Amino acid sequence: MNDMRILERAVQQTDIKISARKVQVYYGEKQAIKDVDVDILDKTVTAFIGPSGCGKSTFLRCLNRMNDTIDSSRVEGKITLDGEDIYDKRVDPVQLRARIGMVFQKPNPFPKSIYENVAYGPRIHGLARNRAELDEIVEKSLRGAALWNEVKDRLNEPGTGLSGGQQQRLCIARAVATQPEVLLMDEPCSALDPIATSQVEDLIDQLRSEYSVVIVTHSMQQAARVSQKTAFFHLGNLVEYGDTDDIFTRPRDPRTESYISGRIG
Amino acid sequence: MSDATISAGAPASQPRASLLVPDARTRKRNAAEARFRAYGLGAIIISLLALVVLLFTIFGGGIGAFRQTYLTIPVTLDAAQLDKSGNRDPEEIKKVLTLAYGKILDQSLQAVIAQNGIAIEGIADKDVSNLISKEASAQLRAQVLADPELIGQTIQARVLVNGRVDGFYKGRVTMESAARDSNTSPAQLQLAEALKDKGMLATKWNWSFLTNPDASDQRPEAAGVGVAILGSLYMMLVVLFLAVPIGTAAAIYLEEFAPKNRLTDIIEVNISNLAAVPSIVFGILGLAAFINFAHLPQSAPIVGGLVLVLMTLPRIIIPARAALKSVPPSIRDAALGVGASKMQSVFHHVLPLATPGILTGVILGLAQALGETAPLLLIGMVAFVKNFPAAPPAGLFDPASALPVQVYNWTQRADPAFMERASGAIIVLLIFLLCMNLFAIFLRRKFERRW
User: I need a labelling partner for A98 at 20 to 30 A (CA). Which of A26, A91, A174, B106 fits?
Assistant: First the structure.
């Protein structure tokens, strides 16, 4: 919270990438998300913070319809990407997920080579016409994930043989390779040590220039370090959403204040 | 703040026991552990002993089936008896029955005995002619029909001797037992010994056990597992081509695609129940559905195969589902996260990881089907089948036997020589099963990947 960088980063962007209105999520009878309204800006890092079980990951997974894979889940309300309702009947979630990439909590590379991990997305979406183009995408993505220099000589070795931090950056490279517009990250650093964490955080900051990044995190320091916008969730409600420095320095809601000062959560 | 409670909680009054002397509680605990280890070791020793005894009896009784006693004598194929017209017309030659060939063999053996001056006291003509197996004349006839030019020549014929004489060289028959036996006599055995001395009779490795079809009750020496191996092979083909794709597809659908509701719950329970249904019930089902209703031929590998498919399906589905379930969900998320469709995530990522488990289940299911007897008895595969089935697919509808059924069949017969054949067939079956299990282990090792 004492990170001085917060103050240096004003939000320049005003284009709304994703807009959520009156979003309700149910798991069976249980309501996990209540009346969430949020506008996620383009080329901005937005952090979702809140205590465990507050629904921030659930809400994140609504944004690329990963909740569809859970049978009992039900989403109400409206979420739009560039003004188009992503829960419209005509939307194919597969196409949506190609535009909204996702990085998960635990690094989950495919048990294939590093090259194949990154090439998989472009391959199934037909982004490369030949091997040379695919090579180019793989290199660009790995460079984008700040991993190229470490793995360029062993692209054919299994991705699972990398260290945890490298694996997570490989997963980011894999997500970036499909050329998404939004990148969702679900606690991407929770399984990493501090050094790997700072590498991934630096990377997130770089990614901001091309993508809209949404990150769920347990660590308030991390939210303060990497994000420009922060949303605080509590018990399924979006309590407060605003510029990161406002949330951390001048919270309006007493619950936000108690959470960031360590009294709840 | 917690430091205070720790120091306050320790009882100060008790004297500290030495670490070098275990206290009563520890001794009791250690004794219990030692006892448990002894039980475990004992259980393993008992099962190993049982296995050793089993293998010893089977191999002791069955190894003889792989050796066979043959008599090699010059046989003059007399044209006057075998081809009266003299024009070597195959149709004419076919009219001469095995009886004539038997006579020729008989005459040849008599001639050999006379030439070598073998004189056995009290030997009857019947003993001499019975020395040669009844199957031998049929084999000689087949040889002549295949090559009519042999007629008129004198060939060195290698012919089977009767089962009792064969048993004498394998230790099954003794002079004492022969004296009480109406099918042989001590004199016949002495004749065999005399022929052996002249180098005409020898016990050799017996390939024909693996290639011959079954033989009738009086000719155990000619019986082989050829038709049974072929029948079992055909049935395995049917199982492989039906049960494996159907089973894996069902497992993939149920595990990855099917909604989780009451209907799929019921299906799941019923698959588990089917795996526990006694196999003979599947035999009755096969009899009713495939033979009585669909009018497929009896004793045919297609029917046996279909019954085994029904029986094997749950045994393939259950391990395949377990293998799919054991693939970490993070892999599915990863694939969906980069925009793969459900099917792409399953076929590109989940299935390759589940392959070793699925294959192991498939092979163990096949191995179980290979050894299954009861359902096959009900659909008529227990019949005596002398003719080889044709090549598949037409051969699938020809009558055939199966290895386990052949074993069952032979143990029912009176002649003790068939006991030896049955054990031999069990050895063949065990070797097949062993190979399949080794293959399963090999596949698991080959495809196993860490993630």
Answer: A26
According to CATH, the topology of domain B226-447 is MetI-like fold (1.10.3720)
Instruction: Determine whether B296 is exposed, middle or buried from the number of CB atoms within 10 Å of its CB (0-12, 13-18, 19+).
Output: middle
**Distance separating alpha carbons of residues B262 and A71, to the nearest angstrom:** 13
- Tell if the CB–CB gap between A97 and B260 is shorter than 8 Å: no
Nearest CA in chain A to B448: A111
Domain A5-105+183-260 falls in which CATH fold? Rossmann fold (3.40.50)
The domain limits of chain A are 5-105+183-260
Give me the long-range contacts of B245-251 (CB less than 8 A, separation at least 24): B246/B309, B246/B313, B247/B312, B247/B313, B247/B316, B247/B317, B247/B320, B247/B362, B247/B365, B248/B316, B248/B320, B248/B358, B248/B362, B250/B313, B250/B317, B251/B316, B251/B317, B251/B320, B251/B321, B251/B324, B251/B358
Q: Is the ipTM of this complex over 0.90?
A: no
pTM for the model = 0.80
Is the Cβ of B63 closer than 8 Å to some Cβ of chain A?
A: no
pLDDT in tens, A178-193: 888 899 999 888 878 8
Domain residue ranges in chain B: 67-206, 226-447
Q: How far apart are CA B147 and CA B64, in angstroms?
A: 32
**Taking CB atoms and an 8 Å limit, are B336 and A66 in contact across chains?**
yes
Three-state DSSP class for residue A40: strand
pLDDT above 70: residue A32: yes
